[in-house]
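Per your request, structure below.
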């Protein structure tokens, strides 16, 4: 067997010696890398601690600055309230305002001419141009069960400055919860006062009521019923007008289910209130807001529509007489005021409405016409823009007559 060459022997010997050296070198490198990672982790931890301390110091400095500003007399109440309120508001109220809030309203510009004719005397004429109505509704869907509404109203010569006409909370009256609770400044539904005319019907002028009230009821499909209560300014002599809830009302409205009458609908309703003098007009006529006994009221309403025709009628009356002197406009006479309004509307073409009305009232003396009739034409000349022209003729108990022509340009948004 031949011996290995000396060079090969030397090469094997060198590799044998080098293996332990390489192993030791790799071990040293790994240890060094681990040490470097440990040092880096320590450094990161230290930086995190410094950052946390800096944040704490910055917060303290900000609080100190705020306190100094407050001490020097500069108020931070607004920003503080905003921060606190923002945390308390339902999530998404700001980011989803378009889904939760609705703004809508109307502006109405009117021009009118009036002539009052007295028997045996020349007629007295007057005319005017007014911004009759400017109103804004803010409706907030708080959640799927609760809605809040604010109604701001300005009427030239009546509400100056802007008045909060309605402000209420509605709990329920949804598809999932037909029972409801309504509370706030509202118009209790003793009478619907619907009309196709520019001018209000006599029923509304006499008996419309506005109060801070609470109402509970049920509204679903073809039925809507409710009962409510409020503390009326007009009270019975032995009641304390500032501490007694003295007025109660109830109503029931019914309509045919949708689709029962093709292209048509029939509706009817009845309402009762134990204190009819709570209406805006009658309240102003009660001396010292005091009656010997409260006088109840009843309203009946009905409507029907079919294709291009619509008919509606409403009757409201006091159920008993007011005694002598209890209504200022009646003087020393007893009075049992009542009113009736009947309207027929025809819509022969798209965007056009023509209507005629006949109204009567009793025991209103010279305050309102005993008979009022007239006609109106309304044209939606542009989207949400309506031009109307109305004529009314009134006859009073004294034999006087009135003729009124009113034109109106109204927009809704």
């Amino acid at each position: 067997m031949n011996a290995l060459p000396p060079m090969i022997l030397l090469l094997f010997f060198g590799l044998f010696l080098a293996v332990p050296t390489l192993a030791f070198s790799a071990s040293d490198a790994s240890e060094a890398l681990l040490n470097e990672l440990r040092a880096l982790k320590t450094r990161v931890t230290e930086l995190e601690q410094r950052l946390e301390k800096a944040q704490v110091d910055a917060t303290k400095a900000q609080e100190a600055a705020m306190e100094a500003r407050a001490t020097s007399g500069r108020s931070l109440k607004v920003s503080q309230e905003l921060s606190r309120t923002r945390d308390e508001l339902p999530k998404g109220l700001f980011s989803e305002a378009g889904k939760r809030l609705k703004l809508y309203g109307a502006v109405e510009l009117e021009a009118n001419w009036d002539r009052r004719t007295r028997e045996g005397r020349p007629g007295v004429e007057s005319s005017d141009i007014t911004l009759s109505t400017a109103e804004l509704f803010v409706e907030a869907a708080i959640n799927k069960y609760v809605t809040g509404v604010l109604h701001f109203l300005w009427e030239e010569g009546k509400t100056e400055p802007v008045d909060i006409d309605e402000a209420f909370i509605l709990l329920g009256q949804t598809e999932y919860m037909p029972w409801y609770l309504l509370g706030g400044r509202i118009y209790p539904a003793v009478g619907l006062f619907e009309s196709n005319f520019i001018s209000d019907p006599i029923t509304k002028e006499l008996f419309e009521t506005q109060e801070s009230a609470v109402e509970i009821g049920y509204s679903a499909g073809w039925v809507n019923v409710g009962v409510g209560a409020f503390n009326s300014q007009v009270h019975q002599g032995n009641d304390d007008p500032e501490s007694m809830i003295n007025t109660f009302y109830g109503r029931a409205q019914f309509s045919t289910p949708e689709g029962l009458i093709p292209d048509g609908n029939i509706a009817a309703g009845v309402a009762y209130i134990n204190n009819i003098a709570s209406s805006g007009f009658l309240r102003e006529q009660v001396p010292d807001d005091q009656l010997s006994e409260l006088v109840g009221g009843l309203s009946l309403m009905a409507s029907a529509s079919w294709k291009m025709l619509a008919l509606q009628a409403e009757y409201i009356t006091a159920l008993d007489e007011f005694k002598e002197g209890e209504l200022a406009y009646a003087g020393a006479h007893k009075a049992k005021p009542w009113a009736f309004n009947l309207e027929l509307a025809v819509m022969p073409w798209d965007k056009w409405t023509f209507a005629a009305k006949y109204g009567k009232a009793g025991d209103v003396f010279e305050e309102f016409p005993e008979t009022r009739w007239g006609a109106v034409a309304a044209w939606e000349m542009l989207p949400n823009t309506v031009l109307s022209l109305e004529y009314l003729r009134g006859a009073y108990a004294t034999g006087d007559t009135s003729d009124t022509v009113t034109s109106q340009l109204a927009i809704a948004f």
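Confidence is low (pLDDT under 50) at residues 1-26, 57-95.

Regards,
D.
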